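Input for the complex:
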Amino acid sequence: MPNLELEDAQIIERTLCGEPEAFNLLVHRWERQIYGLALRMLGRDDEAKDATQETFLSAYRNLSKFRGEAKFSSWIYRIALNICNTKLRGRSKNVVSLEEQQENIGFEVVADSEDLAEGIQRDQVARHVRRALQGLPPDMRQVIVMKEYEDLKFSEIADILGIPVSTVKTRMYTGLAELKKRLGHVRSGI
Amino acid sequence: MKGDPPAVVQAWLGRRRVVVMSDNQKNPECSNHEDLVSYLYGEASAEQSSRVEAHLASCSRCDEEIASFRLVRSALQEWELNDMPIVRVALPPQRRSATAVLKELFGVAPLWAKALSGLAAAMLVLAVMGTDISIGHGEFHFGTHLLGPGGSVNPPPPRNVQQDEQTMGRDEIKVFVNKQILDSERSQKETMSQELVKLETALKNTHTNDFAKLAVRVQEQRDQIKTLERDIDRRAGLDYQDILFSSNGAERSRRPLDNAEGGQ
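Predicted:
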């Protein structure tokens, strides 16, 4: 069966040839990945939304500079990471978001059923994962986010970041070891 | 206690895997973190995998470490994207070059418009080159005055003209260029019209001469036909005796007499 879906490069060509609405196909195709990346890098939903929007706007404005030699995904991930890093640098270290304050307060796990308890527990774990990730240095965090959530290969991450594959793996190892500490020592249990 | 993971996380981690942490002796293979990470994410080659597996079998510390990393990975996957916002990017219109706009306009223009614009462009180029085209006397002449007779470039305009051009504003330049284009177009049209008139006259003259020659030829043919007709009429008036007693017949009639004379 023929593949009727347009390649990213074809959509870019159409956009550059005077069909700006074709770019929405790219937005629709990549918004989830870019939003996911931004959310896990920034840890805040509102900032992640802004970063996603800025990423696509920047990509649209600089589309004519995109070289077909690289994949569009690598290019747009790079833009998104740059935007996230700029936002992280601009953050005041003393400011704690309302969401983080709520997380710090925490709440009692009162479950009426096992499913609900499981759901709440999962939510709690997700919150701790979010906080643990936010505690990592950005260079480690971006490697872990791209590997764990975007399912990119080490070589692809190296290409996006412009660093050797060995550096990516070292950051990955160090990041996992750091997360292990932050998420708690795996204890002998039960 | 500060630094301990929250109880809820410990409970969650504890339900999934039981790992006993212990300090074992280390060997150089323990520091091969790249291979370990590649193995953990299924990106190790067959050789790397067998090397890592052999090491894990003999090193409980690394075996525990990789097990704990698997738990960390599992915990990371608990952070799912539940609420995916709809991203709407208000795209500003792309800046398009004048060439691209012209190309698109040309693409949608009807055939006659394309032909006309092509002709105009050609005329403009020819006008700029100072091209001289003439047709007549059975030949086609094409010449340009871009270069002088000696092959040298025409001298630049006087200095004051250049200065005037420099001081002209953009709009004035536009008006000036448009005027030049119109003038050259008009001039080209006039030249072409004159050439056409000349060509038509030459054609008429040629036709007139040809007709006159043809008329003479026709007249000659008519005269020849009349002569032939007269000859035919004259021949038709002769009877058999005339034929018989013509020069050949007289010879034949004289032969018996000759024979008679010879016999005497």
